[in-house]
Amino acid sequence: MADTKLILDYVYGHEASMPDRVYLTQPLGNDQVANYTWAQLMDQSRRMATHLQGQGFAPGSKIAILSKNCAHFIMAELAIWMAGHTTVAIFPTETADTVRYVLEHSEASLLFVGKLDTWAQQTPGVPAGLPCVAFPLAPKTSFQTWDSIINRTEPMAGQTRRQPDDLAMLMYTSGSTGTPKGVMHSFDAATKASMGIAAELRRQIQGDVRLLSYLPLAHIFERAWIECSSYIDGKYHIYFAESLDTFLADLQRARPTAFISVPRLWLKFQQGVFAKMPPKKLDMLLGIPFLGRIVARKVLTGLGMDQVQLAGSGSAPIPADLIVWYKRLGLNLSEGYGMTEDFAYSFNSTAEKSAPGCVGVTMPGVQARISPEGEIQIKSPGKLVGYYKQPELDAECFTEDGFFRTGDLGEIRSDGLLKITGRAKEQFKTAKGKYVAPAPIENRINAHPMVEQSIVSGVGQSAAYALVVLAEGLRPRQDDAAVRKEVETEFTRLLDEVNAKVADYEQLKMIVIAREPWSIENGCLTPTMKIKRARIETMSAPQIEAWYGNQKKVMWA
């Protein structure tokens, strides 16, 4: 066991074999950036590890990070591991209540505070007396600063070894279904999954692997596929985004060869293209030989994705039509499937095995099956150790023969491709007495260019309904009578089209247009932009009776 090469050992190897290779590029504002080589990164991490060791924390103590993605997040994680401790990352958009819950539930011994947009609102969530260290890009605080500690501390010598069964990290779920759960991951599981991910990226990308890290590192998707796989490979170049306003410039700087995102952002990129060129005109141009290729290339260059060889979508279902649209531009967009509990290592699309509407085939070492009830069950090398302080959940989440119960419903095709058909807990019964699976219907609705997001609901009602958020470009004009008429006409057509393709008991009575977009700030989206279905349904409850009493097919909330 002691001779097992673990994720931290790979990092030591990169420090020794390619000390001068640039690994991270951090924007500093005003078009300035800082590049960090492996040697520079490890020098800072080793110094912080010395500091952490000197605090007298018990081995395996939980050290928390509250920060947007940045170079010092990665430095801090390596320091935590070298000092013999366990990382707890908190989503940078969490409320003070959730920050406090995670810090107290994990029994964090110290908190690193980094880049944040809402620190003033989050501050009350930090328990009094908890030691804190501020990253260089953190808001102004009274805490010790990273740089002051680094400047006065000697780097840790040698190569601290961790054991396979040691806890590397506690990953708190984003809370789409309730209170966040602390998922425990060992160094062994993190290493095995990250090795598989790194191998898959190398197999699909020729030449340099350049990545833009902007999805929260507190989420398993970004942590596994960007950060931890880079620890294994060592030859990635990771760029960070400075802010939402500079995102396009950050993307242009990175010119990524692999780009991983979530469905909502892929949709927003498409809507941004449509804002510059109407869909019908673009469709016509793409259909012209030779000129179509030039137009497609220009669109991808404008998005900063002309160098992308592998484009991935995860975290939530993506409409199949959206994948087809990107592929028509020449972008190899494909879908994967993973979860916090398996270190985002279960299914992935490949050049040989992919199809719109499917999430790929099992990754090496993964076993999967469909239970008699239709549930997807997985046995992955990246499987969790268990839920922190919740042993009762451990018994519930595994079958007797060790498969993880995902709670998702799906079908495995004869070619091995997995199609997700819904989530067991999201299914609901209408008054017709049959279950409705909302996800497939939502995917049909979300494919429409006028729609940004939707949910399908209607528990106990005569029929289901859809609540939609208008595309961003339409919202400023939604009070214009002509625009409203156009939207109502188009959504009436969409309603009829959707109803023609689903079973009679799944047909929608109406489409309701939401008053305002769903966001992280108003509590309708998780930090990874998943819809908080229960929250939206609760907010809509006072209006339900009026909606069902109205005979219109399309109405405004």
TrEMBL record:
Pfam families: AMP-binding, AMP-binding_C_3. It catalyses: a long-chain fatty acid + ATP + CoA = a long-chain fatty acyl-CoA + AMP + diphosphate. The keyword Nucleotide-binding applies. GO terms for cellular component: membrane. InterPro entries: AMP-bd_C_sf (IPR045851), AMP-binding_CS (IPR020845), AMP-dep_synth/lig_dom (IPR000873), ANL_N_sf (IPR042099). The keyword ATP-binding applies. Keywords: ATP-binding, Nucleotide-binding. Residues 18-388 form the AMP-dependent synthetase/ligase domain. PROSITE patterns: AMP_BINDING. SUPFAM superfamilies: Acetyl-CoA synthetase-like. It comes from the Bacteria. GO terms for molecular function: ATP binding; long-chain fatty acid-CoA ligase activity. PANTHER family: AMP-BINDING DOMAIN-CONTAINING PROTEIN-RELATED (PTHR43272:SF33), LONG-CHAIN-FATTY-ACID--COA LIGASE (PTHR43272). This is AMP-binding acetyl-CoA synthetase. It comes from Hydrogenophaga crassostreae.
